[in-house]
Batch of 3 targets.
Target 1
Amino acid sequence: MESETLRSLWFFFISTLSLLIFIVAVPNLVYAVSPVDISAGNGHALVLMDDGTVWGLGSGGYGELGNNISTEPNPAYYSIKPIRIDGLTNIMQVTAGSWHSAALKDDGTMYIWGSDFDTWYGDFQSYWASHSIPTPVSGLNNVKAIEGSGSNIIALCENGTLWIWGANNEGHIGNLKEKVVKTPYQVHGVPEIKTFALNSNYAIVLADNGTVWGWGHNNGQLGDGTHEFADTLVRMQNMANVLAIDAGEYHTIMLKDDGTVWTCGANFMGQLGNGDNQRGATSLLPVQVSGLTDVKAIASGMAHNIALKEDGTVWTWGDNSYGQLGIHDSKEYSSVPVQVTGLSSVIVTSAGNYNTAVLTSNGTIYAWGDDRYGQLGITPEVVSGDGKECYINYPVKISLDSDADARYTETQSSTTNNPIYPTYAKAPLPGKSGFAQCPLIYGITVCE
């Protein structure tokens, strides 16, 4: 009997040791992580996993994927597969800007990486300098929320102070004269903040009492009834009981506690959603979005919006020049909300500049719109085919490959035969029709 007991104990010991070795050696096979949040930027997207790790896909040429693949900017780099960003653990929030990324750790420290075009790091570098390794932001402690958009970063600390830095071409950072604010600047006069949002030339905050305040450039997006630039906070008129806010390029979107959605500002692509088809119209005061009720979450891109209803359905309106409305239609814009078909049980929404992404309750990510940089998980030249258009106007599933060895196997790393710029050159530009206009890259026309 004693020998049998010893054999049993020995077998248990060997089995346990083998299992532990297996877990350590092959972690991805025994522990599958699931996404809990997404953030869509200009050419890249970030995915936050339930284990606190961060993954990215799309454009990586300025270090926005945290890949440490090049010390010099190279816009040819991109990845159609989500790759894990090294050095980030215990992350609780991520945000994707135009060409930069940021993450907030559970200990209140903030990390940032990507383009330093407007010195988001607080130390001026050369034009389009790149930091491809997540770097802690000095001088800020106990941060509890962050957002990056355009060429700015904004952070809220536990003590209620609000900080912003980056590009200041519009003078929207504290009325400072510098074109670039190199270190976090405290925004004074803010109320007790529930949340905040910003774009490249203005910022808004939602107070705990449900009122909305903003400052900076004002094409009506501050909702104070004027076109006047605001160097201090002004209160949005006729807005109360607000639950959520977001900032487009020249318009603002608000969700009220009764489930209705309101907008103000520019309407050149129907982004106000009130059915007004007069291109170029502007509303200096909030207007209600037509036909939307029971909404529980909102998001805004450059000139398009997304609303998530209580039943898990998704509705979009505004600019559709890159298919970012996801409605299987090539029309240029929609001035009223339309449902994105084929989606259900959506729990998270995110709007990039010209693309949209959602997360469902079973952990599936769908995205649509601009794919010039592979941010939809599909090689751009596969999407474009003829090299003229590079977008998808319906939801496609993004495959989450957790194999770290697969990173950059699909990455184009040469400027020769580069699939990004040819498709970008002939993609429809925002607010334009057709493919006649050619952008300049470093002063060189890239159209054929």
Target 2
Amino acid sequence: MQKNKKKANLTPLFLILPVVIWLSFFLIAPYGVMFDLSLHDSDDKSFSTYANPIYANYEKFISQPPYPTVLLNSIIYAGISTFIVILICYPFAYFAARGKWGKYILFVVFIPYLAPYLVRIFSWRVILGRSGIVNQFLMFTGITDAPLSWILFSKVSLVIGMVYLFLPVMTIPVYLSLKRIDKFLIEASQDLGAGVWRTFRYVIFPLSKPGLLVGFLLTFVPLTLEFLTPALLGGTDTGLLMGDVIFTYFTTGQNKPVAASISYVMMAATVILMFMVIRSAGIQKVFGGQGRN
């Protein structure tokens, strides 16, 4: 009897052991190596000596140019793109959650995202190019006489690409949050004389805020460190972004300690932002709880 109890107590440990081993080798160990690398002297290409002081690379990122300017530039692009994503996704998620054909509408929207990442990015290069659909439409309607060369490889194309790629990332949590709102609360608000706007302002929007904040977190943070989209759709006028700096330092720049320190600072900021969102939004409200339809 005691042997059976011991086996029962050890069963959960054996079940989680593969996960612990996997995370240790492929998550914790790489993070540890990168943290150690961030403490090394950036001028020593053999990475055999530590920086003096030990936090020199972090201090360099925070105080020395061009890093603060690059960080601000990344935040601006991420903020603009996230704001546009919210403006597009919130009305769509609302009608999908309240409409009869909501699930089918979501399925149709997600079809393009079955294509590989690079295919979707390059499709925008075709659409926004000199002979693309946008320029052809502008010339056909007489708005312009010649193709506009500034649309592609510009700030406009960069924001369009970033918004397009993260539309479903914002849509899912907002849709789930709106879907779980009890419809009787909306009916009660209307019965008490509240119009459409007051019902939205005092009932729907506050109850959907957890999904909106989670969607903001899942959209804004990756956009801040986006690399491939600026490389393929951005131009010289977009300026450097954090993803560009990290990639360059890890590859051609051969300044891995600084790149590692930048990555850790951004990761720490991400963790702090994540806990702030969880604390304020109550993430369990997005994925848990019961709603009436």
Target 3
Amino acid sequence: MSNVNVVPIESKEDLEESSSLFRSDPKAATERHEQKRRVSSSEFLTEEGKRQSLYKPGELTPAEDVDCAQHPVDPITGETNVSCYVLVKKIRSIDAIQSSVNGSYIFTLRWLCPHLKGKRVNKEALWTPTLSLINYDEIEIRPETPWFYPKTGDCRQVIFVSGTVSNEQNLRYFPFDMDDMKLLFVVELGTGDQHARLHWDYERGADSSVNITPDYVCNQMKEWYIHRKLTSVRRIKKIKNLTGHMTGIELRINLSRRYNFYLTKICSLLWLMTASSWYSFFMVEGPEKLIDRAVFNERLNFSAALLLTSVSFLYLSGDSIPKLSYLTVFDFIMIHSFLCQFIVMIESFFVFQMTEQCLNNNMNNNGTTWCDPTLIRLVDQWSTILVPISYIVVQIGFIVYSLYQRNVQLQKTKQAKYGVEPCLLCHSGMEEKQSGKKWWAITTHDQLYTTTA
């Protein structure tokens, strides 16, 4: 605060009193005059000076709430650059039926308020960017009170997001499938804000996408394996009347299902029941190994019991199997197992008919060759060999083909772009437009659109 010298204006009576006092006691008159001058100086201080005088030297002066609520704009670029970083706190469930992912996330936003630099602000009145999720289902967004650093004018805010987001999945190769979960988040959604620009925290670097899912989150996922190195952060293509060219970011986390549970606890028991049905091939009668009516009934009852047991087992395991409108690899494995058990019953019926025909011919002394006992035994023997081999080959084929498709998709993901898209690490919108460092923007599942800066 600058010193202000103001000469006090005295009345005629005060002047006479001052002159009389000066003649009798010059020192007291001088002190009185100085006191009046100091009082007059404080009265003539400006309003700003009065406000400044309330604080100690070096203490921050408060900013008006109107200034705090003002949209901060960089004086050089004319835009508001909002830096962000995302941390996955927990992934509770991935529901293929509801096409949703339930989890908790922590968003960290950072922006600059140059007009508030060096001032003390009311954090409750401070302007903050509005964060929204495009693919939300049932979501709760809880922003914390922002932090302000007067020395640099830097503002930071932590936002906690919890709930479900929509996430379409392709389960045709279930349980050997590989998929991804997406978070589509923007700032100033639908506001028409032409100044806001959302970008990634460039101080963390292009490899920071690996740390979005910490180790403890990966260890909590019992059914899914998270490919941390394949996590990507990319720019969302502009959606008319919804997002701008630089206001949205897509976070994509690649996952592959752990199929051990389905193989060991469901498929293995189904395979055992199917293999047990082959025991009916050894149910024969007499040294000629014929299939009479009694043996046929035993075979039929045994195979039917196993088939009903298989169906009942899958009914009890229905909670672990997604109910979809299309067939998955797991469905083909089940259907083929049922079909194999049914083929065993058909073979028993066919051999029984041959045996009945052979017995009738012997009784009628009719030497028909196609129902010869040797041929019947040959059919039964070849069925004992071919049915199990064909079943095993087809089942292994389903698994090998699914794993091959999974590996192909994994290789495509590795050959594609992952990490942080270079344009999100630019310091300004002008640099992002001129850099030409964009990948692509994805609006639907597995549909690529090449974009230019």
